[in-house]
Amino acid sequence: MANVYDVFKERGFVEQASDEEKLRAMLQAPTTCYIGFDPTSDSFHVGSLIQIMALAHMQHHGHRVLAVIGAGTAMIGDPSGKTELRQLMSQAQIDANAEGLRRQLARFLDFSGGRALMVNNADWLRPLNYIEFLRDIGRHFSVNRMLAAESYRQRLETGLTFIEFNYMLLQAYDYLTLYRRHHCTLQMGGNDQWGNILAGADLIRRVESGEAEALTTPLLTTAGGAKMGKTEKGAVWLDAARTSPYDYYQFWINTDDRDVARFLAFFTFLPMEEVRRLGALPGEALREAKETLAFEATKLNHGEEQALAARAAAKALFGGGGEAGESAVPSVEIARTRFVEGIPAFALFADAGLAKTRGEARRLIAQGGAYVNNRRLEAADETIGLGDLVDGALMLRAGKKKHVRVVASGNEG
C-alpha cells in the first residue's frame, strides 16, 4: 500500500510538515494521529471537510486516528483567524454541540474495534488545577515565541485577551496528553494551527523526550476567492437539517470550473488517474466531472440513497428528466387555507425562503427571476391559489438554480 504521506502530497493536502523525511518514514508503520475539532456549533460545515478527509485517508492506509472533540478548549476560544474574541458558550451548550459532531464524524470514520477513537479534551482539561498547570506546563513556553506565532501576532492589533493567550498552552497539553495515553505522534490541522501544533510537538520533546511531528493542510478558498463552504446563503452544513442533501449536491455541482479537479482530489476517494481524467475534460464535457464530484461528496456525507435522490432531482429540474426526483428538492409546508384565500406571489416567495424579505421578493419578480411551476411571474401582486397546486404542491424557482417545493398542508376544506 502506498505511503499515506505520498497520497497527501499527490492530492494536495500538505501545506507544511515538521520534517518530511521523518514524517514519511514514521508513516511507513502504523501511526496514531489526531485532529482537534472545537464544538462551536452542533454541525460541521464544508470548511471542515478537508480535515475530516485527512483523517479518513489516514485510516484507509492502516493508521489509527483520534478525533478530538474540544469541549475543553471551546470554553476558551481559539484566536486563530479571528479578529475578535469568540462568543463564550455555556458548558451545556458546548456538550450538546460535541454530541452533534460525534454523529457526523461517524459517517466518515470507522470507530469499530478501536480503529478510530473519539475523545473529548474536556476529560483532562476541565479538572486541571491552574497553579499546577502553570508550574508544570507553562514554564516550558516563551512569551516572546508565543507572540511571534501568526495566530497571536494578527490579534495584537485588535486586542488579544488573556483567556485566548492560554489557548496555545491548552492545545499543546492536548498533544502531550494524547502522546502519553495513546502514543499519538502526529497532529494534523489547518495551516492556521501551525504554531499551536509545533508548540505541542516541542512540549512532548521537552517533557517526555519524545518524537512528535506536525502536518498542516491548506486553508481553502475557491478560485473566485470565497472561503470554502461559504455561499450567498451562508455556510454549507453537513447536517441535513441545516443544508438539505439536495442543496448540498447543488453546492458541489455548481463548483467553479477551475476548482473541479482540486476538489475531486480533496473531497472524494476517486483514484487520481480518474481525478486527472475528469479534471481535464474540455468545455461542456466538464459537466460530467461536476456531477461526479457532487454525487461522490453527497454520498460520503449523506449516504448513497440521498445522493441518488439529489442527482435525480437535479436531472428532473435541469435536465428535463421529469418529476421523479422532485421529492428530494427542499420543501416547505404552507397551510392550505392560505391558498384558498390566495397568497400574493411576493409573500409566497419570502415565506418559502427564496427571498430574505418581501421587498427582496418583489425585486426578484420585477427582474423576471421568479417562477411558479416553470411559469415566469409577471407581477409581484399576482395571487397564487388552489388552481396553481398540482397534487397538493407547487414548485417555486428563483433564478436558474434555487428551487423549493411548497406543499399545501391541512384539510382539503
- Mind summarizing the main beta sheet? 6 strands, mixed
Please report the first level of CATH classification, the CATH class of the largest domain: Alpha Beta
The CATH homologous superfamily of the largest domain = HUPs
- Enumerate how many helices there are, as a single number: 19
Average per-residue pLDDT, rounded, comes to: 87
Terminus-to-terminus distance = 66 Å
Beta content comes to 5-15%
Residue stretches low in confidence (pLDDT < 50, at least 5 long) are 81-85
**Tally of individual domains:** 3
Strand order of the largest sheet: 1-6-5-2-3-4
Secondary structure class reads alpha/beta
The counted number of beta strands is 15
Cα shape: elongated
What's the architecture of the largest domain in CATH terms? Answer: 3-Layer(aba) Sandwich
Helix content: 40-55%
CATH topology of the largest domain: Rossmann fold
What radius of gyration results from the CA coordinates? 25 Å
Fold and architecture overview:
The chain has 413 residues and is an alpha/beta fold. It folds into 3 domains: 214 residues, Rossmann fold, CATH 3.40.50; 95 residues, Tyrosyl-Transfer RNA Synthetase; 79 residues, Structural Genomics Hypothetical 15.5 Kd Protein In mrcA-pckA Intergenic Region, Chain A (Roll). The strands form 4 sheets. It has a 6-stranded mixed sheet, sandwiched between helices. Strands 9-15-14-11-12 form a 5-stranded mixed sheet. Strands 7-8 form a two-stranded antiparallel sheet. The longest helix has 17 residues. The radius of gyration is 25 Å and the shape is elongated. The chain starts with a helix and ends with a strand. About 1% of the residues have low confidence.
